[in-house]
Specification:
alpha/beta, globular
Amino acid sequence: MTNTVSYAPELLAHSWFNTDRPLLLSGLRGRVVVLSAFQVLCATSVACGVPQAQRIHETFAPNDVTVIGLHATFEHHDAFSAAMLKAFIHEYRLKFPIAIDEPNDAGPIPHTMDRYKMRGTPSLVLIDRLGFVRKHTLGAVDDLRLGAEIGALTQESCAAAARTSAA
Amino acid sequence: MTNTVSYAPELLAHSWFNTDRPLLLSGLRGRVVVLSAFQVLCATSVACGVPQAQRIHETFAPNDVTVIGLHATFEHHDAFSAAMLKAFIHEYRLKFPIAIDEPNDAGPIPHTMDRYKMRGTPSLVLIDRLGFVRKHTLGAVDDLRLGAEIGALTQESCAAAARTSAA
Amino acid sequence: MTNTVSYAPELLAHSWFNTDRPLLLSGLRGRVVVLSAFQVLCATSVACGVPQAQRIHETFAPNDVTVIGLHATFEHHDAFSAAMLKAFIHEYRLKFPIAIDEPNDAGPIPHTMDRYKMRGTPSLVLIDRLGFVRKHTLGAVDDLRLGAEIGALTQESCAAAARTSAA
Amino acid sequence: MTNTVSYAPELLAHSWFNTDRPLLLSGLRGRVVVLSAFQVLCATSVACGVPQAQRIHETFAPNDVTVIGLHATFEHHDAFSAAMLKAFIHEYRLKFPIAIDEPNDAGPIPHTMDRYKMRGTPSLVLIDRLGFVRKHTLGAVDDLRLGAEIGALTQESCAAAARTSAA
């Protein structure tokens, strides 16, 4: 896990799937949040990141550990469409909430990706019950280690998380 | 392999990638042809069919065993675009020729898929040196068995293939 | 995890590998212990249980999460020898402590396996910092879920473990 | 495949499993023979070589492509026993004939392994219908390529094999 601890920036989304209303991190305090950034046209996202996000969603109680997918379109902009993502979600039977990252008029990197300083996809961010970023990685992640990190975060009460974050 | 033997219908393509000119089966007589039909938004295609096609392309000499990809868009038409396929080919580093199946004004099934009576994706068709269909399957295919079938077809001279096809 | 909580019975070993002295659970209080029972001649042990035990050993700090292998020879007694296990440990490059379960003159089930009421191999037992059994399963186990369970146990102080076990 | 072609040396076996009489290559002329050398205490044999041999046995008609396993005990002699191999064959549900290579009083390398100049396990040897060695490799082998090589050999008549071997 990272040594420096900072608040997870709020998500900026163009649109959402698998939820009847937009999700705000501020509304998820008290839960552990797994933010899984991916692209449909990124091979490692499709082979590793997305199936792992689905496994996390199926393994933990969603109101204790909430998985959020983020389609962080930072390349192949002309190839992406909301219809494509919708079909992908249907075909891969993804059940967790997924946002399209808000496009940025100033450049190719969409807003949420920019705020988190993600360097590509797949990227994974673990956010504790108080809203602090506790892990942030690029690329494929080992299930056993990730499970341990999520499992450890679930054991933190909000009070304990506060102490850890302040340490 | 199938018992009934029929000529492989000619391909009808909207456009091609990884080749500087359209491929016609009639121009490939004397070679074994592996026709691999897939869709970018089909999970089994992406996990099994497409990587297997790439492995075949890398395992055999292309002028002896020619792999042709066919993007058979029979669903999610609004989600598909040539730009999406182009990005997919780039990201998955596919090197074999790939055609977009010719859309059909009369319905959702594109023309080549219709001619071959493919029932979905991934579909795999083995065509012998004389142009006869020798195998036609839907879904994931075992590498060992498929390798054996391709290896057997490569040993047929055009004359031998003629005898087998006539049997 | 199991609902009923009981103390983990002490290990009874014929001999040990990868440690210069026998391990007693009573000497490991304060640590999480992963007890991984296997047999060299059990296919699921070799394909799943043993590599997972090695991954756990490599993922966690051994003095926080201690992995112990147990060769629970309950079948093929005539095929087993300490020399065979020694060669297996060498060839599979296993680094965690491994015991040969104490044979039982009264029957085929060795003593530790009998005490734990293991029904076969691979079997996995999670023991918390106070020495209570918190999970006990037969067969292959999912990495993500197991990681979460171990990660959660690592967050328990001895005091917290006491409260949980007493609940 | 190898460029130089030589007759496959006859097998020398201490004992056999899964067959009611010893197999001689001279008695298998007309068939393609896949000789798969392995050791129970060799990780790559167990993970790759042995399951692949079983797949070959299940994919091809045994009287056309005959798989023969060879337990080539060249290390860990004190750990090996016929009882161990018998239990392994039972647990892994192997159905093809398997020989224990004949031990060599003069050194650690058993006789068949020595005759074939195998450098370790797993080793794989493809023998054509006339009894010539056509492939000989050490280590894990790709299913697609191996399937193609076996499939090609099956298409050779004895007469054709004679021409190829003489070339």
